[in-house]
Amino acid sequence: MSSYIASDFHHYRQLYKQSIEDPETFWGDFASSEFTWHKPWDSVLDADLDKPDISWFSGATLNITENCIDRHLNDKGDQTAILFEPNSIEEQAQHISYRQLATEVNKTANMLLSLGVKKGDRVCIYMPMVPELAYAVLACARIGAVHSVVFAGFSSKSLADRINDASCNVVLTADGGFRGTKVTQLKSIVDDALTQCTSVNNVVVLQRTNSKVTMQEDRDVWWHEAIDGQSDVCPAEEMDAEDMLFILYTSGSTGKPKGMVHTCAGYMVYANFTFRNVFQYKPGDVYWCTADIGWITGHSYILYGPLSAGATTVMFEGIPSYPDTNRFWQVVEKHQVNIFYTAPTAIRSLALCDISLVNQSDLSSLKTLGTVGEPINLEAWDWYNLHIGKEQCPIVDTWWQTETGGIMISPLSGITKTIPTFATLPLPGIQPCLMNEDGNEVLEMEGEGRLCIRHAWPGMARTIYGDHQRFKDTYYTTFPGKYFTGDGAKRDKEGNYRITGRVDDVVIVSGHNLGTAEIENAINQHQSVVESAVVGYPHDIKGNAICAFVTLSPDAVVDQDDFRSELLDLVASMVGPISKPERIQICTGLPKTRSGKIMRRILRKIAAGETANFGDISTLLNPESVNEILQVAGQQSPTR
Ligand code: WT7
């Protein structure tokens, strides 16, 4: 057992203390004892959080896939690395051993090389949750190409924006993807997207659903043809510690999504460290994270964290409600899952189902439960604890972000005392602080404020692809010298943190981080719309839902029902179906400050059903708009 993986609470305290007093020795010793490097580093950390300019392990060289695959072949070659559970219960699960993983990743890497992909090239991956997606990600890392995985639920417009932002040369996709009873036509979405992209030379198409697709000559190749005959040996590219490993897009509070850049060494070290500490993975455990690899959770805690730790990681293609709402629990029993990691939105919707369905499955293999993505409400926490964990499994409420690369604040399973709805304590190496709106730190232990992090950690994003100024403005300017998370938090007397939610214009719907500005942009495309304001409001199942307030041009004549469905279509096609507003309210004016800024704070309250206490609205440009909106809101039924 590594001395860097906490074995009890006292040990956690010791590690924490050590990591704060001397971060460089702490991370340097962990990194040198736990990973395979080609060259050692010159210095562990060089960081200037004002610029910000951050580099970890600079001078070192490595390849993350040697750490995730090759080094396990001696003693774990036959152990299952990826346990694939298909969408359909008729289809056999696949137990992919570390040895098979090596073969498949190398062949895929050689396929990419044969298409001319070079170190540093960006490869867009738009694929369903099948083993080839994992091979593709790791194959990019093998040859030093930068992967940019785009969640396969995004629209062609969102896909095109992401391909263009990173100037990807190659797109890896599939004919289609299974989702319950539905098939998503991925290749035709790619075709649509590529009408707006010029950087892409090749599209590789995996056959999964046998959907009818059109292959464009000179551009499109079938995966099975391109991989046929490729060698199963592919030397790993020697990467500098700070070379880019991947770009992953996350919604911003203004328009364009941000391509967060993570680099090879620091990300690997942090994903591994957090995976082992938080979940307390033991050899032989079966671990299942239900996220999609299109999100950071899938990158860090389906692939890189577990594989670098030599774990068995489950990859599930389907959805929680197919063929029935007890699918998760059936899979837990079938594969004897020990560690289960999911999102509050899934827990809330599964909690609505008949409990006898849950009880049909034997869940006694479970040891640890995890949650991530948004604050978990008490009812959901209690249900998870009682009905899934049978009050025997610690719940790790893991707070982190795409930007942080790995878990930042969380109980360590079986070590930290859990408190319902609290993410509890920071991981070793993480120094959270709370800031007032006026820029001062909340110094008392018990308090509330904006959550910031004051010291560099290995997994932190290094920049926004192509826009370092925006990176600085978004994260390092509000509170100079500190990383600003965008979240609010409370801290209790013992130093436990409870995340209260976003303080900016990002709304988390069913665990998906949606930028309100992007949705507004889509709505504003409608010819009758003058202006719109999109806010989130609390929703029983989704955590939050989207409400759009829209003003129409004076000469617009619209049929309300048609208009609403046109707006929904616009949002679905430009942003993606998950961003569709639950409610749309037409109004004659939006409340604005005198400088013309829409007062979303008030709209948020109205959407949440409040009818008073909007603060002083007399200073607004148009105070009358508030009453008008309230009247209409009162008449409207809550659904569209
Ligand atoms: C935002 C980041 C990190 C993986 C999934 C989401 C919210 C995340 C928690 C939690 C309360 C949470 C925050 C954060 N969030 N985990 N355990 N408790 N809130 O990644 O899409 O980058 O979203 O998700 O608001 O800022 P993301």
SSE map:
Elements lengths: L8 H13 L1 H12 L8 E6 L4 E6 L2 E2 L1 H5 L4 H4 L3 E6 L8 E4 H17 L7 E5 L4 H13 L2 E4 L6 H10 L4 E5 L2 E3 L2 E3 L1 H9 L7 E5 L13 E3 H5 L11 E2 L3 E7 L7 E6 H16 L6 E4 L6 H13 L3 E5 L10 H9 L3 E4 L1 H7 L4 H5 L8 E4 L6 H11 L6 E3 L34 E4 L11 E7 L9 E2 L3 H9 L6 E9 L5 E6 L3 E4 L2 E4 H9 L4 E11 L3 E10 L7 H15 L8 E5 L12 H8 L16 H12 L5
Parallel strand pairs: 4-17, 6-7, 6-8, 7-14, 8-11, 11-12, 16-17, 16-18, 18-19, 19-20, 29-30
Antiparallel strand pairs: 1-2, 3-13, 4-5, 9-10, 14-15, 15-23, 21-22, 22-24, 24-25, 26-27, 28-29
Helix pairs in contact: 1-2, 5-6, 7-8, 10-11, 19-20
5'-O-[(S)-butoxy(hydroxy)phosphoryl]adenosine (WT7) binds next to helix 11, strand 24 and strand 25.
Give your account of this protein's structure.
With 640 residues, the chain is an alpha/beta fold. The protein is 32% helix and 23% strand. It is built from 20 helices and 30 strands. The strands form eight sheets. It has an eight-stranded mixed β-sheet, sandwiched between helices. Helix 1 crosses helix 2 (23-34). 5'-O-[(S)-butoxy(hydroxy)phosphoryl]adenosine binds at residues 250, 295-297, 372-375, 397-402, 423, 485-487, 499, 502, 508, 513.
